[in-house]
Automatic annotation (TrEMBL):
PROSITE patterns: 4FE4S_FER_1, 4FE4S_FER_2. It holds the Pfam family Fer4. This is 4Fe-4S binding domain-containing protein. SUPFAM superfamilies: 4Fe-4S ferredoxins (SSF54862). It comes from Methanosarcina thermophila. InterPro entries: 4Fe4S_Fe-S-bd, 4Fe4S_Fe_S_CS.
Amino acid sequence: MKINDNCVGCGQCASFCMKEAIEVKGKARTTNACIDCGICAVYCPVKAIEVPA
């Protein structure tokens, strides 16, 4: 999972992460617990999350 520079740090993605694998400190970032499920990308209001193919 890649979070690009469009991230505004709103935390919307983190609230939907089943693995609690997103930290928001200024901007969001994934932790090692991320399983690349992509649910966070669905809820990102600024489309800042890129899901690997």
